[in-house]
Amino acid sequence: MTVLEVRRWRRGPCVVVHAAGELDMSVAPRLDTEIGRALGMIEHPCLVLDLTEISFCDSVGLGVLVGALTRARDAQGRLILVVRPGMVARLLTMTNLDRYIETRGSLREALSVA
């Protein structure tokens, strides 16, 4: 059974969602729900999605990230992914999503540009 830990909090003008574990089809709906709640917390949201502790991401998880970008843009907001070198960063590069989704290397950096 896949375990995904998700926490959500507000920091200044942003809502931070931190996910840890494996992001696959069995747990992706949970992250998607938290993203929806985060986007609903403020008008013109700035969503910082901290994926630094995600060790695996499948195509369904990737779909959640694309959906988060679409939903943030639809709300006239912004999405910033926090990723470190590793699987998620490589996946974003391989799919060319790194051209469309803003990324930062640390939570501090993401919040400083928000």
Short description:
By secondary structure, the chain is an alpha/beta fold.
Description:
- The protein has four helices and five strands, in the order E-E-H-E-H-E-H-E-H.
- By secondary structure, the chain is α/β, with parallel strands linked by helices.
- A five-stranded mixed sheet has the order 1-2-3-4-5.
- Strand 1 (4-11) and strand 2 form a beta hairpin.
- Helix 1 packs parallel to helix 2.
- The protein is globular and about 35 Å long.
Give the tags.
alpha/beta; 114 residues; five-stranded mixed sheet; 33% strand
List the helices and strands and how they pair.
Layout: E1 4-11, E2 14-23, H1 28-39, E3 46-57, H2 59-74, E4 78-82, H3 87-94, E5 102-104, H4 107-113
Parallel strand pairs: 2-3, 3-4, 4-5
Antiparallel strand pairs: 1-2
Helix pairs in contact: 1-2
Low-confidence stretches: none
Span from first to last CA?
A: 35 Å
Structural class of the helix and strand makeup? Answer: alpha/beta
Percent of residues in helices: 25-40%
Strand content: 25-35%
Report on the biggest sheet.
5 strands, mixed
Read across the widest sheet, the strand sequence of neighbours is 1-2-3-4-5
Q: How many individual β-strands?
A: 5
- Tertiary shape: globular
Give the helices and strands as they follow along the chain. Answer: EEHEHEHEH
Radius of gyration, in angstroms, nearest whole number: 13 Å
Number of helices: 4
Overall pLDDT score: 94
